[in-house]
Every structure is written in structure tokens, then in C-alpha cells.
Amino acid sequence: MNQLNNQQMSSAQQASTLPQVKTPEINDRDRLNEILSTEKYLASGYNTACNEASSEDLYRVQLQLLTEIHDAQRNLFNLMHQKGWYKIEAEDVNKISQKAQQFANYRTQFPYS
């Protein structure tokens, strides 16, 4: 009997270490991902709308909305990052410096200063 309990406990311990299978239900991470995607889509649309605004008043209203959308995106990103749902890999400082220098070299090729 004791051996059976040990086997059941061992099976339960193994099950808890296995990767969790994604269920069809939408969880908080899925919801936030969807909201963040929507905010990115809205930002793209409002960016175009600002560029093509027919009057200064319309431009200002759309620009304010675009700013609010960017703020919402940033808040969502921070929340997801805090929860470990949006991971960013740190890049090597030397690699960043190399790319910055590469861009600086490209700037000398531009026809304007």
C-alpha cells in the first residue's frame, strides 16, 4: 500500500513539472496580447490620419489620440514585461555600438546634411 502511494506521488510530481498544455480558453496573457495588437493597429491608422489631416484642428485632435494610444501601448508592454509575458533579450553593448557606427557611416552618403 505504501509503495502504491509513493508511485502515485511520484506521478503527481512528474505531472507538475511537465509543460502546461494550452487550453482553448482565453487567458489574461492572450487578452493583453490581443489588446496590444489592436493598439498597434490603431497607432498605425492614426499616424496616417495625422499625416493626411485636412485642417490644423483635426490634426491636433488626431495627434492627441495617437499620443494616448502610444501611452496605452507602453503601459500594456510594461505590464506584460513585468509578468514575464513579453520577453526581451539583452543585446551585447559592442554589437549595439557597431550598428550605431554603421548607421553613422551611412549618413555620410545622404544627399543632404
UniProtKB/TrEMBL annotation:
Q: Region entry Disordered: which residue ranges?
A: 1-29
Q: Where is the composition biased (Low complexity)?
A: 1-16
Q: Name one Pfam family in it.
A: Coat_F
Q: Which InterPro entries match?
A: Ferritin-like, Spore_coat_CotF-like
Q: What is the species of this protein?
A: Hazenella coriacea
For this protein, the record's Gene3D superfamilies field holds: 1.20.1260.10
Q: What is this protein called?
A: Coat F domain-containing protein
